[in-house]
Amino acid sequence: MSSTPPGYHGAYLRIDLSEGVAEPVPLSAETLRRRLGGSGLGTEILLREEAAEADPLSADAALAFVFSPLVGSPLTTSAKFAVVSKSPLTERINDSLASSGFALAGKKTGYDALVLTGTAAASSVVVIDDGQVRIEPAGELTGAAVGAAEGLLADRYGPGFQFAVIGPAGERQVRYATISHDGRHAGRGGSGAVLGAKRVKAIAVRGTQRCCWADPTGLVAAARQLSDKSFGPATAKYRELGTAANLLAFNRLNVLPTRNFQLGSFAEAESIAPEQLRAARESARASCAACTIGCEHLYALQGKSQGKVRLEYESLFALGSLCGVSDSEAVLACVERCDQLGLDTISAGGTIAFAMECVERGYLAAPELRFGNGDAVLAMLEAIGSGTGLGPRLALGSRALAAQLGGDSLDFAPQVKGLEMPGYDPRGLQTMGLGLAVATRGADHNRSGAYEADFSNQVDRRNVGLDAARLAVAAEDRAALMDSLILCKFLRGVFDDLYAESAAMLRLVTGWDVDGDELRETARQIVDLKKRFNIRAGWTPAEDTLPPRMLNEALPDDPQAALSAEKLQQLIGAYNLERGWTRDGWLKD
Amino acid sequence: MAVVVELFGICRERAGVASADVPGACLGDVLEVLATRFPRLADDCIDRRRLRAGYIANLRGEAFVSDPDTPLGDGDSLLLMSLDAGG
Hints:
The complex is a heterodimer.
Chain A: E1 11-16, E2 21-26, H1 29-35, H2 38-48, E3 63-66, E4 80-86, E5 93-99, H3 101-107, E6 113-117, E7 124-129, E8 132-137, H4 146-157, E9 162-165, H5 168-171, E10 179-181, E11 184-186, H6 191-197, E12 200-206, H7 216-230, H8 236-241, H9 246-252, H10 269-272, H11 274-280, E13 283-286, E14 296-300, E15 308-310, H12 313-319, H13 328-341, H14 345-361, H15 374-386, H16 391-394, H17 398-405, E16 415-416, E17 419-420, H18 430-438, H19 451-454, H20 468-485, H21 498-510, H22 516-537, H23 548-552, H24 565-578
Parallel strand pairs in A: 1-6, 7-12
Antiparallel strand pairs in A: 1-2, 3-4, 3-6, 4-5, 7-8, 9-12, 10-11, 13-14, 14-15, 16-17
Chain B: E1 2-7, H1 10-15, E2 19-23, H2 27-37, H3 39-45, E3 46-47, E4 50-51, E5 55-59, E6 63-65, E7 77-82
Parallel strand pairs in B: 1-7
Antiparallel strand pairs in B: 1-2, 3-4, 5-6, 5-7
């Protein structure tokens, strides 16, 4: 292999913000075939840029916007990109994915990835116009909320440009700040803080450089088939109800994290459920760019704030049951504030819920910060975004806050590797618990969809056997493939054989003679690569675990849902061996 | 013998109710009755004595079940929900 394959440009653009210069860096066909794009290619680039060893908020850090061979193709859900960096929250690999026109316009700049290094002299906008780079003062954008910033950028640069922006939280380097665009967010792990540390308020991209496809006729036919399947029953839940529909089912199964994981069910869940929201307020549906599923469900605000807010299950649990908040208007207002400040809703809710329990236990003196007080959650989000009051302490995330507070507070900080836990109680979903413990990004439902096994008759979800390790590996590998191709995981149910069908699509795009077996191995290698990054960043086996609370206490509302430290260690050992690593989790080479 | 069927997500939307008391000694029996009682649920979620792909049943909030011959006890709760849990 030598020449650039169809679907790719064959290079990334490296922009040194300190020097104000940009240069193309070639990507060989061999590298592209091994790493595909998105998370896989991004991790490869970061290792080359020696980002694993760097302080993620320093000038030495690199942050990559990575596209994929499918971006710009007619395949549904393919308008996606990955933001890859070392996380300031976890100090480990962080790959956050998002969908928007930014992916389409970004790839048309003529590069497979845009990589930022160094630090700008002042708050800036990085403009990449058909591959030409200029760095301009952010000016009136500085301090603006996400929506306002996007509006100002559209006014300043006009049509044809797409933007990725940070909100005030990113500018203040809140460790779980997002990068936002078109109402979507590269949400987890604090990539917004990395951009903020580089003094980049926004990136504007525009271009005309399209990639060719190896078999355009076949690709259009395949895209039509995939779109047809995307309208079927496998996506009905997402299309008709949205992800928030998980809430009541999870609640019934006692796996809905409530009051900082003290409980697995929320007595007032019905009051914040999407079924109730739809009955009580105006709602609408929307889609990401180039998507036929249309999973976004927006609900009208009815209080002081106006407009509609997009509601996902993870936001609903984190700012609802996890904080004990049953006032649906308060939950929606909190989600809206996170969107505008540029905060990851899971980490924001997780950190605030942790702080609430710290208040209950006397670690923190903040009497208003009580479970169930939606106004207090909203006020705390504002404090985090504005750097006032307790905000700067909570801006560091629950692990760092626990380190400040001391005592046994780390035992009930809801995090793995520093990343706050998503809405799945690992005691009642133990395959997922394993996935959360070992995931390279930290507690993560998008890089490990191991709950799929728990929601099946393949395992006893409250008492899994060692076979759960194989299932967790399989789920993680599937995610690695989809995050590198890149395709939306909500499509996963439409494939009979993800690997073979993905290979067929990739053949049409690139012309490679790739098959399902090769992609299966590629996915495994990408997971290995992320582990390699983490090892270089200082990973040790001790960090593959769950919070002590999860290992010392059964769920009070489901006493059979218990997971011991010994059991988790057995599962982790089996997982590591299944991956071909040492039992402790080290790579063998 | 009757069980309490609790419906979630698409299953609830199609049936138009959150729960229903349904006679039946095994999973397949209950699904047959549900299909007769709730035609829209039958169209999208039930294929004779089984749930269609994409849907899953849970017994008493504990084990997930799919075999139509799975025995049910009087008063058992049977939960019907979407298979895809993610979000």
